[in-house]
Amino acid sequence: MPKGSLNVSLKGADDIFSTEESRQEQQREQVQQIPIDELHPFTNHPFKVLDDEAMTRTVESIAQYGVLSPLIARPRPEGGYEIISGHRRQFAAKMAGLETLPVIVRNMDDDAATILMVDSNLQREHISPSERAFAYKMKMDAMKRTAGRPSKENSRQVVRNFETADLIGKESGESGRQVQRFIRLTNLIPELLNMVDEKKVSFNPAVELSYLSTEQQQEMINAMDDTQNAPSFSQAKRIKKLAQEGNFTSEAVVDIMGEEKKSELDTVTIKNETLRKYFPRSYTPKQMEEKIIQLLDAWQRKQQRQNER
Predict the structure, then answer these.
(1) Averaged pLDDT in 10-residue chunks for the chain of 309 residues
(2) Would strands 162-163 and 158-159 be described as parallel, antiparallel, or unpaired?
(3) Residue 211: domain span
(4) In the chain, which end has fewer C-beta atoms inside a 10 angstrom radius, N or C?
(5) How far apart are CA 237 and CA 286, in angstroms?
(6) How buried is 297 (Cβ within 10 angstroms: 0-12 exposed, 13-18 middle, 19+ buried)?
(7) Residue 122 counted as domain residue
(8) DSSP string for 143-171
(9) Which residues pair with 83 in a beta bridge?
């Protein structure tokens, strides 16, 4: 070979045609073992990590098999990593005594990280109304920032010909209108929002109450305490109208909440534990209902015979 010739080594086809971006992507997607204490919760993470029965099962599984699915996290400017997906796994791993976790580290901006965090958590089986409400709001805000801020004339931002709420709903199996109604719940004071999670206040009335001011919502709670009633949908709508018309007073709310609901007039409820005293444990609710109707028919015939004497 002549002295002036270059010693050139041939690269494989993948190296020749791969871009710098794809090589960086491959490097980012490598699973790393990261100390568990270097992993921090996502800022304003809307999903609760509960130490419940499901968590106990997760801890037992991780203690036996380890963490099988890597977490997703991004580097923090102040050091360590912010968890995007895997908060429950990290909690369970700590409980199981693990010192490191498998993590895929991605460099993501705030909005992209927020959208991925919400989407990964919405796959969970049990999500409370408050969790869904704040998650939808975080995702909507992130999507709006990504696409550009909406004009005052169009508060429902258009993203690639889809309104933001409709797009979120399509991905979650709900209508855009329902997404917006969930987001309304973020306007509730914590006490009322907890009542929604605990099923003490139904979803539809809660949406109506979300239009009340903080002070009016507190008055609403006081009225519920005074009357020992939760608002029906129609009652909540009337209370919302009072507020919109400037006629909201604690007395007016107590009057509405003290009304006897039509459902209460038309319905007789017998608790299951009360009925169980009179039926074998093997009886299904349907069998108990049929037996009760049979006994009532016999009682009615007996009353009729007595009246004919």
Answers:
(1) 43 44 57 96 92 91 94 95 95 95 95 94 87 95 76 46 79 89 96 95 96 97 93 96 95 91 55 73 76 83 70
(2) antiparallel
(3) 188-284
(4) C
(5) 36
(6) exposed
(7) no
(8) HHHHH-PPPTT--S-EETTEEHHHHHHHH
(9) 73
